[in-house]
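Quarterly update from the structural biology core.
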Amino acid sequence: MIIAKYFVEFVIYSFLGWIYECTYCSIKSKHWSNRGFLYGPVCPIYGVGAISCSIIFGNFNLTLEGETPIWEIFVICAFGSAILEYATSYILEKRFNAMWWDYSNTPFNINGRICLPATMGFGIAGIIVVKFILPVAESVKGQMQPVFAEILALFFMGVLAADTALTVQSLIDLTQKLDNFEVGFNNKIEENIKAIHEMPGEIREKYASFTSKLTERQKYALYSIKKYTSQSRSFSAASIKNYLESIGSKIKKNLPERHEKQSEDSE
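Predicted structure, tokenized:
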């Protein structure tokens, strides 16, 4: 029963994290930007972080007085988020040879996986979560009926499991498609990425044929992935994204379109 409530809480925090990521990146890029590894509207890394805070600060007294000071909450959350973010980035890169975020151009970064500004931001966010959000969440969780929590947890678990399986399979298939595409266009791709709207009809047909075989999940992944570890694969992915934008393709999800602004401009 406790596990079921924690899992429901994990999904809710993952959804709130997804909203934060999309909002922040959309404001920064000045157009709708959908975020996350999974196709569904969740960022599990936020759920893991928030649940960790709930367990640590809700079940353990970290000082003799029984109340953890703000500075200590900041340090614990910042340090914990750095470990979580670095580990997640490392695992995803090793599994899919791709990076979903890259801090290489941000000051005080470590291998582009974590950086000081983001870590400090997560530390501040941790204070907000612990001091304001967790007390409300604990109150709501305490009033949740065990049967309802278990049913909701099983539902969320099924949806997340299906989303994860489909996402992983789509990413593997997308990588194979990009590799095959790059092999066939290695000698022509550089000039095409610079001026896709002017490319010869034969090459345009090849792009059209390739993109027509991509699923919505794979198109979503193209925009979600910051870069591939393989330079040639990243180059191929960039050219495909440019082509999709040149024809006004819209990457759809459960909520608003991802590249709505670019699509309207191209129309």
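The chain has ten helices and four strands.
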